[in-house]
Structures are given as C-alpha cells and as structure tokens.
TrEMBL record:
Extent of Basic and acidic residues compositional bias: 7-19
Region (Disordered): 1-30
Source species, domain of life: Archaea
Protein name as annotated: Uncharacterized protein
Species this protein is from: Haladaptatus litoreus
Amino acid sequence: MANEPGNRTDYHELYKPVDGEDGTGDNYRNDMDHIDRRLIKFGDISERPSEAPDTAVFVEDETSSGDPGAQWRYDASTGEWVKQPINTDVVSAESLTTQSVDTERVFSNAVTMYVRTDGSDSNDGLSPSSAKATVNSAIRNAPINGDAGLPLVIDIEAGTFTDDENIVEVRDSSIPHLHLRGEVDGSNNPATVLDASGQTYGVVSEGPRRITVENCHITGAQVCAYARGGTFYKFVNSKLSDSSRFVAEITNTSSAVIDSNSLLDNTMRSDAAGNLTVVGCASCKVEGEVVGTGGGQDPVYGKQNSYIIIVDGGRVDGNGSANCIFVVDSTDCKMGLNTTYANASVACRAERGCTTKTPDFSTITLENVNRAFNVSRGSHVHDETSDSSAWGIPKQNGDPSLWDLGGPANGWLSFDLDIEKPKFYAANEGAWLEGGKKLIKDGSLTVPSGGEQLVTVATGATRPLEVNYGFANTPNAGVDIEYSVRYGGGDTRVFFKETSGAGGADVTFTIYEDIR
C-alpha cells in the first residue's frame, strides 16, 4: 500500500517534524515521538495511513470515494481510526436587513475542543475527559493546521471560567470560523459564565471571521465583546453585562446579530459609557433586548456611516436615558416590525445627515417614551409604508446651529411633495404646520348676489388670521367677492360678501392662524 508507515515520503506528507527533526530513522514508532500531533491530513479514504500518532486527525476531502467530509481520529491504544461525530450546528449568515438571504454555513466536520471547570491546559482538549481549563488554550492548541476552511467549536460546560488575560482572544487569521458553545440551565438561560472581571475584553476579535457565541454569559470586562476589521458576531441565547465601557463594541467594518433570546444589560454600571456601540462603517441587527446603563447613558449608539437595525421583536429599554437610540454622522437606523422602545424621552435621535427608517410605524410600540423621533441637522425620518419623510431643516440660513426638530410625536410623517406642502413640527403645538401657520378652518359656501355669508372661527380677538379663497366654479362676469374679519365678542367671524350684484358665487376657503 502506498501509504504504509514504511513509506517515508507519505510519512512526511502527513506529519510535519518538529524542532528541525527530519523524521527519518529505522523505527517508525520512535520517529513519531518527534511529530507535531496537531496536524491534519486531508485526502481520499484510500490515502489514510494504517498507523499514525495518537489523536492525529484524517479528514476525507470532498472527492473521497468513502464518506466525503468524514473526520477520523487515530487511537494509538487500540491501533484504530475512530470516526468522529459530525457537528451540525448551523451558524446563520443572515443579511443585516429585514430579509434573510440563503447564505447559511453548516459547521459540519468542525474540530471540537472541550473546556471544563476541572480541565487542565496541559491536556489536549480533544475530548471531555481531556478537556482544557481555559478557552484561549483550547483555541491556540486546536488541531486545525492553519486550514482557513476548517471551523472550530469550543464546547464549554456550565460553570464560571476566568483567565489572567482576555477570556477569548482571536487575532490569528487561521481561525475564520469560531463557535463558543456553552450550556443552559433548566430555564434555558446561559449556564456558562465567562467572567472577565479586571480584563479589557471578554471576547476580542480583530480580522475577518465569523464568531458565534451560544448559551454564554460574558461579564465584567471593560468591553464584553469587541470586534474590529471585518469580524461577524452572532449572539445566540447569550447575555452580556456589567461593563465599564460598552457591553458590545462593533467597529471598523465589523457586524453583529443579537438574536431574539439574547440580552445586553448594563444597568448594574452607573459609570459605563454606554451599552451597544456601532462605529466606523459597522452594522448591527438587534432581535433581542438591549437595556441601558445605571447612569442614564443611551443604550444604543451609532456613528460614522454605520447601520443599526432593530427588528423582529427587538426591544431597547433606555432605563431613564434621553434616547433609546442615538445615531450621528451619516449613520442609518431602521426600526419596526414589532419592536418596542421604553423608558426614555425619545425612541431615536438622529443628527448630522442620518436617516431613520420605519418599515411600518404601526408595528412600533412606545412604553414611557415621549416621542418617537428627534431628527435634526440635516437628518430625516422615512416611513416606507406611506413613502413619506420628515426632515430636520435649519431655522435660519445665517445661523446653521439652529434647527427645527423633525419627526412626529404620533408617528405621522411629513412631507409627501406630490400631495402637500412641506411642513414643520411645532413641539409646543404638537402639530405639523405649514411655514408656521396653523389651519383652523377650511370648506366651501355659496355667497348670494349682493349678499354675504359668515364663517365663525374660535380664536381670540388679537390672533392674526390669513384668509385664502377662490371660486369653486366659473361665476358670472363682474362678480366681486370680498372678505372682512369682525370680532363678535366671544369669537372671530370672517364675512364673504358679493359687492357688485352681478350674481352669486360658490366660494372655497382656507383660514390659517399665524402662530409665529
């Protein structure tokens, strides 16, 4: 057989010598003591050697005539290759929109390392009985051979785990797919606690990779989860809490999904800078719950061309903050699809060129929130259902620091230029106004030839009125309509009078009160 142990060429192909040893010698068994046992062989099942170092791994490639994708581990105590169970956990690569795209990747044939409370970092970590004590040791010693396509699963039992460094640190480009898989208690809450108290980060990733955090409670670090440089996080039934800076910081083209069973809660920290921050062309989709800090900081913050989506049952609780969400500097925020915003003055505040979108405002629930939107400084709100928008526009051309607040208190958005004029929201009136004028009455009436008709409006005697009127249809030649305003002692009356006697006229009118 071409791959028998006596064939030294195949021996070198399968297992790389360590520390400069060339692996040659008369006795194959003795030579194996010099072999790096973490390496893996890929190939057809016919290329699997009859013997190998203990715990060596052989993976059938996609063209194998046996079972493509199957993973085998060599057990030196029995002299046999043992087929490993396939990890079929699914990591969803949902797009950060309200629609899912067909880009699921199944973590089949993943290398699985085990971490236990009674483990030791001197163990190989390849089975529960030989588990590691820390997640970092499991990651650094995983037998992935630098293969960029091989996912890594870290199986972590229930209990509390600490480290003298960041609990999970991934900066190696050879680990593109990482799944931290904890356990749950009887109530399906995360029972695996990664306590990063005293550390800068709980989980930190720099570089393009996918990380799934499942059934884990990460707590105590300055930042519980940090992503930079294209990392994609997905939090599944997990909790992040008790951070002095941010519970999650997604930056520099990275992205994250917080699933419907996950919670970001920083209410225990009055000194925290915030909770979830998304900065630098980053994006985040929230389907779970984000709760503010103990010091009144806004729980969700976006900046610098980033994108935040709160959809599919997501909830943001300000815990007494000014805003549930605050976005600035061309950052977009999409809200809706059965989402809730609670315990803040404003659900979403946007400044400096931001867009806040609502797929359907009727699906947004406000609990102890004064108004849905506060947009200013060139930002706007857009309702996709009605295809209407509200803009924050400068009050004075000469003073760009003064801005009108755009966005409604009741969710009705303005303006649609196809059907109406631009309007401004007057917070003191709780109404949308056309250029500072408040419509108080409109309608139509018939003015007889040489006679008059009156319209009563409930305004004070000193309030200025603007009366606009015109003919509903073509009157007789020479018909002349005039109007006058008279105070009747308890109300104000507008009289329309035909003065020429050339015939009656049907008149339409609008009466505004100028409140500027």
